[in-house]
Design a protein that fits this description.
elongated, mainly alpha, 2 domains
Length: 161
């Protein structure tokens, strides 16, 4: 009986340690997102300042400089998307209600392609995969939403060949 109590207690301690690890991981990832959002805000302020100098005050600001800053903002957005996807993976692994397909993808280290979302459900997805991990949309094949392109040759009286 004493061994059973120790065994159950050990099991509960392990569960608590796992939960603490998950919370710590989520906290760290959340802080990464906040840092990236601050970085993005700073870049956007810089873009705005340069745009005002160029268009409001008529100063010479190169379009290349504005474009480079815009590309930096886009890269930060992509990085935020990756960190958010990693947070979602951590949540899915600990969620008992999560579908097994999402748990399998999370355990396999599924990483979405930055800036790419499923055209059907808008979930961050990987261009390398054939299907969306969330809704199952087929990325490689045609979907029922795509228009069907059919070439029909008609002869002079409107009938088919």
């Amino acid at each position: 009986m004493f061994n059973d109590i120790v065994k159950n207690l050990s099991k509960e301690v392990s569960n608590i340690q796992e939960k603490a690890q998950e919370h710590l991981q989520n906290y760290n990832l959340s802080n990464q997102v906040k840092d990236l959002e601050r970085k993005k805000a700073s870049k956007l302020v810089e873009v705005g300042r340069l745009a005002v100098e160029k268009y409001g005050h008529g100063k010479d600001v190169s379009d290349d400089k504005l474009k480079a800053l815009a590309e930096e903002v886009i890269a930060i957005d992509d990085e935020i998307g990756l960190v958010n996807a990693e947070m979602d993976n951590v949540k899915v692994q600990s969620d008992p209600k999560a579908p097994s397909s999402k748990k399998s993808a999370a355990k396999a280290g599924y990483k979405p392609t930055p800036g790419f979302n499923c055209p059907k459900c808008q979930t961050p997805a990987s261009k390398e995969k054939k299907f969306c991990p969330s809704c199952g949309h087929d990325f490689k094949g045609s979907s029922s939403d795509d228009p069907i392109d059919v070439d029909v040759d008609l002869d002079e009286d409107g009938g088919g060949i």
